[in-house]
Each structure stands twice: as structure tokens, then as C-alpha cells.
Design goal:
Elements lengths: L1 H19 L14 H9 L2 H10 L8 H9 L5 E2 L2 E2 H7 L3 H9 L3
Antiparallel strand pairs: 1-2
Helix pairs in contact: 2-3
Length: 105
């Protein structure tokens, strides 16, 4: 009985952690074309952020640096009504902030 209770508790904890980053947990309103940037911050995922930057080359700017400049500007991508840098700080997305800071120009 004790082992069964431990197994159920462990299973419940794992399912809670797995759903923590489930994309259905977040709702994107307005223009969802750039929602991937906000999701990268929410998940603190630099790889996802880099993918989003590369995917916008040619649409927003001619290079990844240009895209980064555009989306991180005050008038750039808005997440929860805040610019990308402010949103990253509020969400304590330290990996994303470190990437944006290291590669800032």
C-alpha cells in the first residue's frame, strides 16, 4: 500500500511538471504571428528564441541581428503589453536575457 501511494504521488508530480509548459496553458491574443517570441521567454528557451529570430529573416529585416533589433525595440514585439526585454525581466527568463545581453549591439 505504501509503495502504491508513493508511485501515485510520483506520477502525479511528473504529470504536473509536464503540463507546466504545455502550450495550451497560455493564451495569445491579438496578433499571434510573433507569439513564438513570447513563448520562448515564458519557457526561458534560447534555442526557441534563436529559431524565432531566424524564421523572421526576410520578413522583418534582412538579418538575424536586424530582426533582433526590431523585436527588442520598445515598439517591437509586445508580450502581455510589455516590450520583450521588460517581459523577460518580469518573467525572470535569465537564459533569454543573458542571450539578448551578450549579443546586444
Amino acid at each position: 500500500m505504501k509503495k502504491c501511494l508513493i508511485a501515485i504521488t510520483a506520477l502525479a508530480a511528473m504529470s504536473a511538471n509536464a503540463s507546466m509548459f504545455d502550450s495550451n496553458e497560455y493564451r495569445f491574443k491579438g496578433d499571434t504571428y510573433f507569439a513564438g517570441f513570447c513563448k520562448a521567454v515564458l519557457m526561458d528557451d534560447v534555442k526557441m528564441l534563436k529559431h524565432q529570430l531566424r524564421s523572421q529573416v526576410g520578413k522583418v529585416a534582412g538579418s538575424t541581428d536586424g530582426v533582433k533589433r526590431a523585436v527588442t525595440s520598445v515598439n517591437g514585439v509586445q508580450c502581455d503589453g510589455k516590450d520583450l526585454i521588460t517581459f523577460s525581466k518580469e518573467r525572470e527568463a535569465n537564459s533569454v536575457l543573458a542571450y539578448l545581453d551578450v549579443t546586444s549591439f
